Amino acid sequence: MTRVPERGFATRQVHVGGDAAHATPRATPIHLTAGFTFDAFEDAAVHFGAGDGWGYTRTGNPTVDAVERKLASLEGGTDAILLASGQAAITVALLGLLDAGSHIVCSNHIYEGTRGLLVDNLSRLGIETTFVDDIADPSAWRAAIRPETRVLFGESIANARNDVLDIAAIAAVGDETGIPLVVDNTFATPYLVRPLEHGAAIVVHSASKFLAGQGAVLGGVIVDDGAFDAARAGALFPHLVARDRDGSAGLWERHGGRARVAHLRDGVAPRFGPTPSPLNAFLIGQGAETLSLRVERQSANALAVARWLSDRPEVLSVDHAGLPTHPTHHLAKRYLRGGYGSVFTLTLRGGLPAAKAFVEALQVVVHMTHLGDVRSLVLHPGTTSHAGRSAQERAAAGVHPGTLRLSIGIEDVDDLIADLAGALAAAATVDTDSLAVDVVA
Questions:
Q1: Of residues 82 and 9, which shows the higher confidence score?
Q2: Cβ proximity of 83 and 220 under 8 Å
């Protein structure tokens, strides 16, 4: 062992051990560091000039890079960018495509956090959004497009009504004018559907959900198809084809079809700064290693539960795309492989009082704001995620006073059904006349 020169206590406590031996672990190593040392003076200049190597975790980290490559491969994309949350992934993806005065055409059936970003935040930047209610009709999307439209946005399986997006049809509408389709694939995961294979340009996820699986960390990811075409879409996105400020080669000249994702990685994500922790990246990567096993089991459990619930007299309706009664069941059969997903809604006949009694009677299913966990979860959208919308807007989204959202986990399905049966029994005994007026009526 090399003898350490005799230095002061404070110096030794900082520096000794910093030269840990390099090894090749089987698990992805966690590079939990703000920055990286440079071996030579010139290495720093090369990194800042060409981007080679590692300098600072906000702009790149080996642990994060390993997980990005895994997720890009699973989605069938050329590149992925891991971020601190799903909301960050959506925000970065959109800000990389939009300017002040731009316009978005968006499915009306989306996560309320995304809706808030569009109508409250991006609108303050001069970016407008038109929402399409009949998302199965390509002509409705086409009619909403304006000269300043730059993005079409939808969810592969919608929150909360479980509508399945006709990805190929809507992507084709965008292709007519070079507008990219961005798809939030959180509910479906790449195990069930890979939107890029059906014409979408960008996929986003809340990696906190199914990709991680354990409900312990937050994260988001953007996956790009690497097929940006300057000839077709350069006029819509001049910042991707223009030369740099100093007159040097621009993104398109340097990256070709990867110009869009290169801009997101180098010009948007590090500047807004939603950097994921390498520890969180590691846990997302570990979760992704069992994604197919979990999603297959969760989807099978969810379909069994949905079928059982649809036969119960206490239940008014079940919105699960795997049921023949769902209006987009034909699209689910076309696009989803390996299952129909595990997040869906049911509506109780007893309204809000029945929903309250149902939730409070559950013992296996957990009451919390989350989904995609290995544990089964329940939430009442009308008083939580959709509380800020009017009663008419909630009804149009399939959220009624008695509506509950279930995210089914990997438990034994008989235990889940027994737990739900007990909750339905509790809901059926509620005297609705004696309770407070329904706050979401």
A1: 82
A2: yes
Counting every residue written for the chain, the total comes to 441
Closest CA to 226 of 191, 265, 271, 193: 265
pLDDT for res 293: 97
152: nearest Cα among 129, 133, 123: 129
pLDDT of residue 353: 96
Count how many Cα atoms sit within 13 Å of the Cα of residue 73 in the half-sphere of its side chain: 9
Query: pLDDT for 373-397, tens place per residue?
Result: 999 999 999 999 888 888 888 888 8
Q: 80: helix, coil or strand?
A: strand
Write the single-letter amino acid at 123. S
Q: Report the chain's mean pLDDT, rounded to a whole number.
A: 93
**Dist. CA 166–CA 158, nearest whole Å:** 11
For residue 36, give both structure tokens.
Answer: 């990286």
Contact 214, 283 (CB under 8 A): yes
Residue type, 416: L
Q: CA-CA distance, 251 to 242, in Å (whole number)?
A: 7
Rg of the chain, C-alpha, whole Å: 24
pTM of the model as a whole: 0.93
